[in-house]
Amino acid sequence: MVDKNNSKSSHQRNILDNLSTAVVLLNSSLNIEYINPASENLFQISNRQAAGSKLNKVMHVDNQFINRLQDAIAHFHPITEHEACISLPGGREIIIDYHLNPLQLTNKKIQLILEISHMDRHIRIAREEKLLSEQNATRNLVRGMAHEIKNPLGGLRGAAQLLERELPSEELKEYTQIIIGEADRLQLLVDRMLGPNNIPKKHNVNIHEILERVRQLIQVELPEEDHVYFKLDYDPSLPDIMADSDMMIQTVLNITRNAIQALNGNGEITFKTRPLRHFTIGHTHHRLVLQTDIIDNGPGIPEELQEQIFYPMVTGRAEGTGLGLSIAQSLINQHGGLIKMNSRPGRTVFTIYLPLSIASQNNKNGSTEMREQK
Known about the structure:
Blueprint: H1 4-17, E1 22-27, E2 32-35, H2 37-43, H3 47-50, H4 63-75, E3 79-87, E4 93-104, E5 110-118, H5 119-166, H6 170-194, E6 203-205, H7 207-221, E7 227-234, E8 241-243, H8 245-263, E9 266-281, E10 284-296, H9 303-306, H10 324-333, E11 338-344, E12 347-355, E13 368-372
Parallel strand pairs: 7-9
Antiparallel strand pairs: 1-2, 1-5, 3-4, 4-5, 6-8, 7-13, 9-10, 10-12, 11-12
């Protein structure tokens, strides 16, 4: 005989599991009975680790917060609070809206549902949407400019070639060769600004193979006198992603080369991979997302450049073209992903977010960390 209460409880848990809002289920003693995957992602703790613990296990709460929880249970009425600041284990502070809703089960047990909306998350989503919108507008602007530049360039080059045929002296032809050479250089620059126009040829790709390939390429390029080391922090439970391997290599290579240049021959680069559950990229919610961090301990990116770092022709180096990061962002956008950057002196992090297919999960859980020398 099927237990209807257990069946109903299982159905309710399935609903909570698929919510993007963090939900914590507390008993009348304010012990945690369950947290959903969105809470696991927010608090960086599993439901199994949290179950049976006090609320302080996942978030530091003051007496005022505890009094609100007890008041909701004692008077059996919901409570809502906006823009409350809470501290997570590790010292990270976040801004949340929360809603307390008491619930009485058929066996007269009272439970309390704590629903948390991470306002920092909403701010992040708004910024990502703005970044994606700006990237799209920039690409359209560059395409329009490229069209206007390419036409006169073609005419300029053709005229120089015709003129060269009529010149009697080889010395004079040197000047036409300069014109042709500079026209070709500008044409190449415009093509690079446009970035790759190829449709991604997606197939099963292992992100760690991509990262290892880039690491090997970078190590071959490094001068012998440099002291740059790689730290690898990989999660082996990650499934393959559907991606264009060449585009992924180009993306990671562009970011890593920038990091190498920032280190100026001395420092450490970390490749780190992790899964994220119920994560939003721009305005699209995904059940599972791959997070790849490329971290360096260099001097950081100047604050005045950080907002425009993914725009074409923006660079902090006199010899740089400012196209590498713009191209990398474009390649990841073609995969439905996004690159974000966070930088301060001593730590710069470029984070690549890519959607993952649930069906491709077939590896065991766990993570590894190792250190590689140059």
